[in-house]
Amino acid sequence: MKTIYTMLFASLALVFAISTANAAVLVVSTRGEAAYRDGAAWKPLAKGQTIKEGTMVMTGVNSQAVLNIDDNLLTIKPLTTIKVLKNSLTKSSSDNAIGLKNGSVNARVKRIGTLKTRFNIVTPVATSSVRGTEQNTSHGPAFGTRIQVPVGLVNASNDSGVNRNVGGRSSFSLRPGNQRPDPLLGDLRNGAITQLNPANITGDEQAGLETFGDQLVDNFDDALGFYNKNVGGAASVKVDLIWPNP
Questions:
Q1: Measured distance CA(209)–CA(216) in Å, rounded
Q2: What is the pTM of this model?
Q3: Residue 100: which of 72, 133, 75 has the closest Cα?
Q4: Could you tell me which residues are beta bridge partners of residue 59?
Q5: Using one digit for the tens of pLDDT, what is the confidence trace for 118-174?
Q6: Distance separating alpha carbons of residues 97 and 84, to the nearest angstrom
Q7: For 32, left (φ over 0), alpha (ψ -120 to 50), or beta?
Q8: Per DSSP, which regions of 109-223 are E strands?
Q9: Residue range(s) in the chain whose domain bears CATH number 2.60.120.1440
Q10: Residue 77 carries which DSSP code?
């Protein structure tokens, strides 16, 4: 009987501990100047403390803070302001939303068994859904919203009906005043020293590749493989190198 009571007490304690942990977000670490808003006042953010849903967090120059949100890590970069819009965890689902007012964050979201995970990062112009992956999101009045995905695939959308999957070499960039984002492969194209696409594709194919990027590629290593999957033989590449004056 004593053993049964001991096991029952331990089970109740575990349930209570889980319920308590679910109600807050844990501060893993801070560096430099990091603060949270408590009512009308800003107070220093400290390692080991918990913050509640609705709390705002701000970092200063050369500063950052790392939050553990339902076992997912959110790194708040320097000169960034965020708000914990939602933090909910049940036996079947994890539902979180982070509002990014300005600055940059990195989110690493785990996929835990059959647990339904929803982790959204919301900026004033776009929303991204992170599931079992890593995402870098930035927002500012000068450049708008930028989303890059080092690992996995992220869905980005806005109120104008834009819905894009971002991953691999692609990036989501929505400039201020624009309703549609830049081409997903824009960064790759702008950083290249030569033409990236085969010369025999149509204008519509070119536009589709730039707009949707890696979403067109399912079973091929790259976009060229997608367009040239039935083309064999030799190929030539012309590269013009322009060297600066000594």
A1: 7
A2: 0.71
A3: 75
A4: 34
A5: 899 999 999 998 777 899 999 999 899 999 988 888 999 988 888 888 887 788 999
A6: 6
A7: left
A8: 116-122, 127-130, 134-140, 144-151, 153-157, 163-167, 171-174
A9: 2-182
A10: -
Counting every residue written for the chain, the total comes to 246
| Two tokens, residue 212 | 């949707």
Class of 2-182 per CATH?
Answer: mainly beta
**Amino acid in the structure at residue 69:** I
Q: Using one digit for the tens of pLDDT, what is the confidence trace for 66-96? A: 999 988 999 999 999 999 999 998 888 889 9
Cβ(13)–Cβ(75) below 8 Å:
no
Which residues in 93-106 are b (16+ Cβ under 10 Å) and which e? Answer: ebebbbbbeebbbb
- Helix H segments across the chain? 2-22, 186-190, 203-212, 223-227
**Owner of token pair 């009571």:** 5
Tokens standing for 91?
């036996």
- For 54, the token pair is 């609705």
d(CA 156, CA 174): 10
